[in-house]
Predict the structure.
Amino acid sequence: MNERQSTSDRDSSLERAIIAALRTCFDPEIPVNIYDLGLVYGVTVTDDGDVAVQMTLTAPACPVAEILPGEVEERLRGIPGVRSAKVELVWEPRWERSMMSEAALLELGML
């Protein structure tokens, strides 16, 4: 296996681990993980293992705004290969139901 394939495989494995970790974080008011809810707008990973997540909440006044970003960062930092994790809350585009995955819609009985 050449160096390029090794790096690609490692990146793919890390990406899968990050998504799996995001799927362990829940908005306590909705029994679906933040990834399938469509709250995660973007994930960037540097070659050094620094992870940046852009995410939103279902509403700007959501009571978990104080704790959920820290919980997400903590989960991501626990992944082998992640050196640091930073979550940025963004409000544009505004979250709406159409951002939910099919799995989330099924889980909530909306499909």
